[in-house]
């Protein structure tokens, strides 16, 4: 994969992740600060490392499914794995300014 193709794919992945909305908060997972990292290997296998707002979140499976569904149609993506981690723990400090304003958090 050329550097240009890899950059395009990374840009598309970032945009697609911004379309995945946390069903409880109504804000995308990127602006909530839930996505800790995205790794793409030379085969187009994508690993999204992320967390959730609370351990034991009943919507974990839904969010994981939405991440996979959002990334699957991107040209060059071969497979998508979602690695949910609890360290470091999520806090409202992870949220973007946009998310804080939308949720009324200062």
UniProtKB/TrEMBL annotation:
Pfam families: FeS_assembly_P. Signal peptide: none annotated. Residues 10-82 form the MIP18 family-like domain. InterPro entries: Fe-S_Maturation_MIP18, FSCA_dom_sf, MIP18-like. Gene3D superfamilies: Fe-S cluster assembly (FSCA) (3.30.300.130). PANTHER family: FE-S PROTEIN MATURATION AUXILIARY FACTOR YITW. This is MIP18 family protein YitW. It comes from Pullulanibacillus camelliae.
């Amino acid at each position: 994969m050329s550097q240009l193709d890899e950059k395009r794919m990374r840009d598309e992945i970032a945009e697609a992740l911004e379309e995945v909305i946390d069903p409880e908060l109504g804000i995308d997972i990127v602006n909530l600060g839930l996505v800790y990292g995205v790794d793409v290997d030379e085969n187009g296998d994508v690993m999204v490392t992320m967390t959730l707002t609370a351990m034991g979140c009943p919507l974990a499976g839904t969010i994981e499914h939405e991440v996979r569904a959002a990334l699957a149609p991107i040209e060059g993506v071969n497979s998508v794995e979602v690695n949910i981690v609890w360290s470091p723990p999520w806090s409202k400090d992870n949220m973007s300014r946009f998310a804080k304003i939308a949720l009324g958090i200062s």
